[in-house]
Amino acid sequence: MKKIIPILVVGVLVLSGLGAVALDSEKEVNTKSIVTENLGGPKDYTHTVLVEAGMRSGCPACPATNAAWKSIYASGNYDFEYVGLIYEYNAKAQQRFYSFNPKYVPTSYFDGGQYVCVGTNYATFYNYLNSAGSRTVPDLEATISASWLGDAKIEISLSVKNNDDNDYPGTLRVYVVELVSPRWNDYNGQPYGHALLDFPWQQTININPGDTFEDSKVWNAATAGYPDIDPENIQVILAVFDDTPHTSYSDPPSGNPFNAYYCDECIATIIEQSPNNPPETPTIEGPTSGKPGTAYTYTFSTIDPDGDDVSYYVDWGDGTNSGWTTPSASGDDITISHTWTKKGTYIVKAKAKDTYGAESDWKTLSVTMPRLNSHMLLQKLLEKFPHAFPILKQLLGL
Q: What pTM did the predictor assign?
């Protein structure tokens, strides 16, 4: 594990480099012993336990904690959710981690700080999960759902019902995490698990007996600074904490005290994605004949069943294409001009694509660029001299 050294940088406390240095001494802190056997999963937890683990990339001891929580979670033997507070890159994670008055990194906090484990010790992790899971908690019943809206937006809906006989005052906190971080690695180069991105909710609540707190909002990942999120890699965790301060210690048994507010309810969900339907085959409207060297304008349109914006790709049949156009609203017409330089018959092909990459079938249109034959030459001559050759015009039916 690694001790934390506060350094003032632009008014914000950050941790020092790679040295494991205590705040009050030069003592090195060794990683705790690791016990790998499973000591038995939960019999019947009173609630889903929440674990928050403070870690950072520049910490040589953090890979062990990162790997441990990944492994324990993947085993499915324990009823818990966990959040990686990778605080050196994320201000929200740093704020949350520093609310525990930490002294070392890595440090794991169980149910808001009821139990604290410095470093990595599987036996201690198992014990604290089971102990936290056996705590008597108020009768709360939470639900949460998250739907992908596209454009890096997630609609989150939640409810917390108080089935208890007493009022429940506390704090609602919702965590958006990436199951496998594509942006933050540990000291050994392994991606962090369940890395916190943001808190869509951090607010006090007070629920009367029998009442339900309900809310929903659209969380915009781009606004939060993460426009590249993958909805299949996102988890949303709801946690409800009591409002009673319990004295706990980030340097057990009595160092670095903080007020712990215990987590009484926790539930998580992944992102629901509706099936994406491709746009309909587009229409093509425009001239089907003309002459080489002249620009002709064509109109393209389609409907996307999901109402998504669409782009068009046009193959002009002469070895050139439009590339994908700028997305436009479903049902809107777009126009593109093209010039064929040689005579011939060209098969124009067009297809549409929505913002999620689903493509329509091709639509085709045959366009002929003929030679200027003698009839066309006479017609052009008569157009130039409309009052000449009246008999010839009559014979030609012009």
A: 0.67
